[in-house]
Amino acid sequence: MLKNKSLISVSDLDEGDIENIFEKADYMCQNMNNMRQNEPMKLKILATLFYEPSTRTRLSFESAMERLGGYVISMADSKTSSFSKGETLADTIRIVESYADIIVIRHPLEGAALLASRFSSKPVINAGDGSGEHPTQTLVDLYTIKKELGDIDNKEITIIGDLKYGRTVHSLLLALTRYNVKINLVSPSNLKLPDYVYKEIKNKLDINIINDLEQSIEQSDVLYVTRIQKERFTDKNEYYKLIGSYKITKDEAEKMKENSIIMHPLPRIDEIDADVDFMKKAKYFKQASYGIPIRMALISMIAGD
Amino acid sequence: MDKTLKISKIKDGTVIDHIPAGKALKVLNILNICENNSISIGIRVSSSKMKEKDVIKIENRFLEKIELDKISMIAPRASISIIKNYDIIEKFSVDLPQKIMGILKCNNQNCITNSGEPVDSEFNLVSSSPLTVKCAYCKREMSDNEIINNL
After folding, report:
1. What is the pLDDT of chain A when averaged over all its residues?
2. Chain B, nearest residue to A167 by Cα
3. Distance from CA of A212 to the nearest CA of B (A)
4. With a cut of 0.95, is the ipTM above it?
5. Do B112 and A109 touch (CB under 8 A)?
6. In angstroms, how far apart are the furthest CA atoms of chain A?
7. Which end of chain B is more exposed for a tag (fewer CB within 10 A), N or C?
């Protein structure tokens, strides 16, 4: 049961929770147009506190709440909030919890969502905490694999990109420990998976760390591509050195199996060629669209009556 | 054979024994020692249990729980003797807490606990040998020297 619970990490969810969210998301997909009329979240308010830029996550949470007949209040830009005056996150949360029934937060510092949940009597959803976790993106990712490939078990998943700072990768890998999957990790040498994440998954997943995508592209069911997280580099020269160090072209994508899929949590910079967008395998825009039913499901399960 | 004690007895105070050789100064560093406290330190003293160890004797000073917890991070097998009128009135080993609250700074500069929020740092003990703790907020692990440097 997720009712009134915060969602800070994928570890907060058990397998039953994930299946329940997927079932509810299926229901939301089938009844998308009726939900607004039925107003299951009538008179409920969702607050979005985004201390970092976002397009998909914030808008999909807001759209999800609107589609459920609820209201949204939003701090879209931390520069125009009391954060810029030096207010602590704890104080902001103490105030916002009295304005809303559920709080969605994105923050540049790791552990911020957990801290927010400890100062709030209302449930808090982590929409990204620094390079920590992004559990709702993981639900979207798992749901995409399930919808597009029929099942998550027995799949070979290759993850390429910024494994060091990419919070979607960290959450996804932690969640995949619940499934019987084979994982290939490909990254530039200085963007490898951090030890603290590797230690959590190494005994629970069949992991293959490889240097070259060629070693796994042909047998992969899922190619999960991530961008280099420019905003996490303290030395921007290091970022510029890594630009273009990997790119999925149409030629690369054609090497993949017939029924395989390419995913990306977006935004994309240059790591997937625009030519790939028109291929049947390219599912990243579809993946982003699943953000609505998944977040509708989550909001209604956490804050619904 | 010379039977003279290398460190003389204290009348009242605390003896911190079985500190890993070479770590006595790190233990002293985390204790607020004031002018009233005379201190004797033995470094690399031979020991039947540890082969070599460090020992600290502090006059007129008794340790708080938070200080004992900090010592356990540097010297997990340290023993503490409380001395009154030259007699040991209490002797115990330090205990590594399962949850370490407010005594350790997270090594991850991007952790929310390092940003002036009104919360104590919070770590869970992962392993006592090698000593490893995990930040409850950012989930990063710290071990041995990282821990000592952040006390």
Report:
1. 93
2. B138
3. 28
4. no
5. yes
6. 54
7. N
